[in-house]
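ok so i was messing around last nite and threw this chain in just to see what happens. nothing serious, just curious
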Amino acid sequence: MEQSGISLDRMRTFMRIVERGSLSAVARETGAGQSTVTRHLRELEDALGVALLRRTTRRVSLTEEGTRYYNHCQQVLCLIEQARQELHATGTSMAGSVRISCTAALGVLHVGRFIFDFQDAQPDIRIAFNLTDDRVDLVQDDVDIAIRLGPLTDSAMRLRSLGTSERVLVAAPAWVQRFGAPRLPADLAERDGVRLSRVLGSDRLVLQGKAGKPAILPFHARLNVDHGLALREALLAGRGYGPAHLWLVEDCLADGRLMRLLPSWTLTPVPLSMLIAPERANLARVRLCADFLSGGIMRLPGIRR
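result:
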């Protein structure tokens, strides 16, 4: 093995090629020419004496040796970052940044104030807080922690289940006065609702009673919105009925601005998860922030373990 060909720059280049899926993508991302990226990879492979990647005209994939080396690179770079963090820590506090992405409505209504409390306790930690309902690539988007609703399949990330989020069927009192309170799910079949678009299966309602088969009915909507806070405002304005996460509307139910419909019927809860970038998971400030946010989120209305 030729040690002179192994460097942190070459290791980082190799990792980015794996994460982005092509040499050209890394060249565009870093501003280096593709010849430079190719040279870094070749020099690393020559120094190690093994092929790390299989390359075709369309994609790259890891060899068995490449998979093992990629895991080692993650550990090495994580240790380097931990050492840097410890050097910059002051007293018993921590220094550095944590980048957080969160489902938008949950972030605005709740997670934001948890972050305020966290920074009050850890004033040397900087937070970058991104609110989006779009799927996030933690590596490509440079995110440490992502909080997401719905099923997740990204096995490359550290996944922490926060439980499930209870949903309830609600409407404004004015809507109920106009159309009447439904007694059975079938009573909603011809009534218009407010629908949260871009949610799989949102074109139907599945309601489970205390016994028997679930009631499945089409969910007709005159108004479609793509943001949880817009859904909340539309429901408050009496634009229709609809399902909503309990943490989204609990205060409105408590003060009577919204009413729960068909309270003896339940909607399927939605998984709530936290994803952590594996190469950042061992950083003390990331772990501390993840634990702090998890504790706050799991105490929210409607979050069930």
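not much to say yet. DSSP finds nine helices and 16 strands in the chain.
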